[in-house]
Amino acid sequence: MSTISSQDDLFASLGLAAQPTNTSGTNRADQMGLNTFLKLMVTQLNNQDPFKPMENGEFLSQIAQFGSVTGLDQLNQNFESLAASITSGQALQAGSLVGREVLAPVETGYLVPGDTLRGQVQLDQSSPQVTLRVTDQVGQLVREMSLGSAPPGAFDFSWDGIDDLGNSVQPGFYTVEVEAVQNDRPVTLQTRLFARVESVNLSGSNGLTLNLDGLGPIAFNNVQQIY
C-alpha cells in the first residue's frame, strides 16, 4: 500500500497535482481556487468525526461540483467573448448603413413634404384586389386607393401624399394599411415601410438599434432588407 506523506502527494494521487506556474492572471486565479478547495477538503478529512467518516461518494461529489463550477465560469467567459465579437461585427455592419434605406416591419411613417411613403407587403397567394388605406394621427381616413391585382410574393406600394380630394396633406405621421382579397375574403397584410438610417445606437438596453428617419429607433435584428 502506498503512503501519502503530504497534501501535495494526496493531490497527485487524485490526479489533481498543481500545474506549472503560468504568468496569466486568470490561470493563477483558477489554480488558487483549486488549491484552496483541495486544502479545505484535506482539512475537513483530517478533522472529521472518525465514527462518521466522509464517504468516498460524497468526497468525489464535492470535487465534481467544484470542477463543474470552474468549467461553467470558463464557459461563461467564452460566451461573453463571443457575444462581444458578434456585437462588434454588427456595429461595423450597422455603421455602414447610415444614409441608406432599410425595410422595417412598421405601419406608421413620417411623410416629408414633396416625398412619398413607400413600403412592401408579402402575399402568400395571388390576390385579385389589393387596397391601400392611409390614416392620419387621429385615425381619420385621408386616402383609399386600389392597387389592382397582385401575384404571390413581395408587392411594393407607395403613397404620394395626396388625399382623396386631390390635395397635398400636411407633413406628419401617417399609418398605412394594406388589404388583399384572398379566397373571397379581405385579409389585412403586415405592412413594412422603407426608411433612411440616421444613426446607430450601441448603448441601449435593447442591444444594437438603428435610428430611422421619421420612425425612431428599431432593433437591428428587425431590419428585413437593406437598399
Write the layout of secondary structure elements.
Elements: H1 7-13, H2 25-46, H3 56-95, E1 101-104, E2 108-111, E3 117-123, E4 127-135, E5 141-150, E6 153-159, E7 172-182, E8 185-189, E9 192-201, E10 209-212, E11 216-219, E12 225-226
Antiparallel strand pairs: 1-9, 1-12, 2-7, 3-6, 3-9, 4-5, 4-7, 7-8, 9-10, 10-11
Helix pairs in contact: 2-3
Can you describe what's shown?
It is a single chain. By secondary structure, the chain is an alpha+beta fold. 30% of the residues lie in helices and 34% in strands. The chain has two domains: 7-95, no CATH class; 101-226, Immunoglobulin-like (Sandwich), CATH 2.60.40. It is built from three helices and twelve strands, in the order αααββββββββββββ. The strands form two sheets. Strands 1, 3, 6, 9, 10, 11 and 12 form a seven-stranded antiparallel sheet that branches. Strands 2, 4, 5, 7 and 8 form a five-stranded antiparallel sheet that branches. Strand 9 and strand 10 form a beta hairpin. Helix 2 runs antiparallel to helix 3 (56-95). The longest helix has 40 residues, at 56-95. The chain starts with 6 loop residues before the first helix and ends with a strand.
